[in-house]
């Protein structure tokens, strides 16, 4: 197998056709609007960002005491008015901090009806990204491949512990696999800063800039595969716009999403047998296929991204399964990204 050197993801092509918001700054601006004498629930802040699914990320951010150390964390509570784990010190200290600002607590809870109800002002960035996803999904083309693919590339992103200027660094990998032999024939990696958090349903805005950069490196080297497998989902997404769909529509090539967990929809009950396939149904439509590749492991979920249909994506994914739970292109891509991220952090 031929390997190319690691490069940095600063190619002009590695951009999205939408501005990626600074969610950390947007969250800070919301918290700054909570005055002394008031509190707000974590879920309320998530809704003001544009999607309640961001609540877990907000909680994780608040628990990181290195993020805005002076933040008035005591003014942010759980939906029942109780203190979150991010509030420094014991509950009694939390109560004292609120009492000093005129907020009463009873049974270690705040009456949100009395001390909440803040009228926030903000751009709701996640709502804007959802609108973009809905528009992008309308441009996806799900159609059968004109000819059987001879090569499939897997792409993945891995993260190390090393940070540059306070930002997390990610490493994107691209590994070309020969379909007939299911063996890797070429690979490359690209690293760069990650400027968006992980929030379910918004993975593309976190990883797509790096994936576009590594694919640009492959294109420059003349190593574009017929189809690209993406570690993530395609049509199997609440808005039919998973990262595989983003990548395919933005780059103009055939993509397939390979998910390790079920993002949305449902699959028929009962244990699956090796080689079995079951449709994933979401809002009354079949959006993906669960495939059991090996005994004793969970199924993976395949869905078309762009320029391929579900039947073709399913057959290709099943054909490329060998000795691992996931199809070989994804397994090799994950291994390459993990290895490169570890080397960078040494």
List the helices and strands in order. EEHEHHEHHHEEEHEHEEEEHH
CATH class of the largest domain: Alpha Beta
Q: Total number of β-strand segments? A: 12
The biggest beta sheet reads: 10 strands, mixed
CATH fold annotation of the largest domain: archaeoglobus fulgidus dsm 4304 fold
Indicate the structural class.
Answer: alpha/beta
Please tell me what the overall shape is: elongated
Mean pLDDT: 92
Number of helix segments? 10
| Helical content band | 25-40%
How large, in whole angstroms, is the Cα Rg?
22 Å
Number of self-contained structural domains: 2
Distance between the termini: 25 Å
Describe this structure as you would to a colleague:
- By secondary structure, the protein is an alpha/beta fold.
- The protein folds into two domains: 2-18 and 133-345, archaeoglobus fulgidus dsm 4304 superfamily (archaeoglobus fulgidus dsm 4304 fold, 2-Layer Sandwich), CATH 3.30.2170; 23-122, Winged helix-like DNA-binding domain superfamily/Winged helix DNA-binding domain (Arc Repressor Mutant, subunit A, Orthogonal Bundle), CATH 1.10.10.
- Helices cover 31% and strands 22% of the residues.
- The chain has helices at 23-31, 42-49, 55-63, 91-99, 112-115, 125-137, 203-220, 243-251, 310-319, 328-345, and strands at residues 2-3, 7-8, 40-41, 76-77, 151-164, 167-178, 183-194, 227-231, 255-259, 277-282, 285-291, 300-306.
- A hairpin with a 4-residue loop joins β6 (167-178) and β7.
- Mean pLDDT is 92; it is low at 8-14.
């Amino acid at each position: 197998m031929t390997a190319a050197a690691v490069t940095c993801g600063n190619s002009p092509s590695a951009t999205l056709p939408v501005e990626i918001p600074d969610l950390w700054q947007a969250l800070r601006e919301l918290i700054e609007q909570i005055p002394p004498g008031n509190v707000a629930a974590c879920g309320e802040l998530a809704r003001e960002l544009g999607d309640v699914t961001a609540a877990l990320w907000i909680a994780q951010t608040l628990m990181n005491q290195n993020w805005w150390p002076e933040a008035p964390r005591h003014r942010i509570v759980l939906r029942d008015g109780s203190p979150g784990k991010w509030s420094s010190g014991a509950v009694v200290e939390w109560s004292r901090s609120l009492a000093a600002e005129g907020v009463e607590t009873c049974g270690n809870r705040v009456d949100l009806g009395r001390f909440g109800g803040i009228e926030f002002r903000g751009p709701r960035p996640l709502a804007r990204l959802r609108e973009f996803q809905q528009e992008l999904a309308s441009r996806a083309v799900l159609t059968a491949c004109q000819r059987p693919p001879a090569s499939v590339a897997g792409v993945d992103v891995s993260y190390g512990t090393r940070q540059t200027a306070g930002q997390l660094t990610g490493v994107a990998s691209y590994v070309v696999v020969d379909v007939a032999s299911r063996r890797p024939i070429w690979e490359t990696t690209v690293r760069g800063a990650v400027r968006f958090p992980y929030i379910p349903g918004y993975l593309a805005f976190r990883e797509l800039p790096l994936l576009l950069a590594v694919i640009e490196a492959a294109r420059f080297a003349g190593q574009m595969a017929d189809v690209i497998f993406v570690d993530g989902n395609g049509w199997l997404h609440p808005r039919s716009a998973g990262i595989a769909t983003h990548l395919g529509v933005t780059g103009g090539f055939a993509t397939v999403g390979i998910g390790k967990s079920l993002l949305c929809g449902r699959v028929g009950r009962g244990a699956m047998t090796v080689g079995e396939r079951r449709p994933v149904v979401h809002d009354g439509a079949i959006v993906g296929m669960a495939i059991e590749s090996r005994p004793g492991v969970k199924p993976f979920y395949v869905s078309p991204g762009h320029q391929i249909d579900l039947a073709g994506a399913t057959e290709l994914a099943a054909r490329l399964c060998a000795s691992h739970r996931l199809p070989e292109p994804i397994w090799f891509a994950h291994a390459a990204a993990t290895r490169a991220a570890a080397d960078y952090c040494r």
